[in-house]
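Researcher: Structure prediction, please.
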Amino acid sequence: MADLEKKRQEHPSNESVHTAPGGKHDVHSANEFDVYGDESSADSELSLQFISPLLLSMGIVQYRTLVWWKAAALMLAETVSLGILSIPSVFASLGMVAGCILVISLGAIATATGYVLGQFKLRYPHVHNMADAGEIIAGPIGREVLGGAQVIFMIFVCGSHVLTGLIAFDTITNGASCSVLWAGISAIICLAFTIPRTLDGIAYLSVASFVSIIAAILITMIGVGVVGHQGAVVVTSHLNFANGFLAVTDIIFAYAGHVAFFTFIAEMKKPEDFAKALYALQIADTTLYLIVGIVVYAYTGSNAVSPALGNTGHTLRRVAYGVALPTIMIAGVINGHVCAKLVSHTSYYLHIHPLIDLLHRCL
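Model: Predicted structure follows.
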């Protein structure tokens, strides 16, 4: 401890004064207030002297490695992958005008709320997930409620990716095998890609995911153009509450990447650059949702189905699902990765490889 105190005296910039309730001032190391600490600081290296030599010999994990464009790629892969596939059917339910208005307005709301989350993370650097934010807002009860909600939501999102993977494999193979088998294969593929310990390790996969969904959507739009007009296109639509509610929630789900934003920001080299990644995401996804919704609905009309890849002819449908496989799998990987970190979030296990994680060193 004497060595640690000496280091802090040599590096006074690593300390900051915080005003406690009642006007008292507490002096804390700045590293204590960041979820991963200052990984470039001598203090973080010094603290490792108190860790088991056996675990220390197995290596240190550095998490704050994301630059803003990699964060944007992760956010695009996580947000756009499945959400975009339901947009044409939303337009079929709501009509062209209501569909466009909701995509634009909910996109603006998503941008504003994403910015608020970014500012919240900068104000409370130790926040890593929704559970941490819930604890700040409502104490232990808030932590359990928001943490549990995030885990449940992400489990179901991962399940939706496994289901879409099942549909994709079943379509590509013309139902050549049992659906349960394809679901199992999809789950195993997603599990394998979650092995990297950091988001930086799957950032390049996210680029491939985004390219994959763009290519699949282009194939779909070309395909519906080749098939020609299949149903009536209406400006406005009269529908009951249940169908309208479902259509609106589909658009909300298409913008629902916010649940992972805290984890993305926590692994950025410069968390203050999150706004750049957010604006890149919102410009891209809002534009894509409008283009895909308008074009596919213009040709399919009331016959639009979800996922949108099923609106083409038989051959092009198989091609589109084949091209979309990377995004179906990788986006599920990102949600599973974030969910797993929430469950196992302690500084001890995040930074040090336990024996069970020797596999990561082999990779």
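Model: The radius of gyration is 23 Å.
Researcher: Thanks, that helps.
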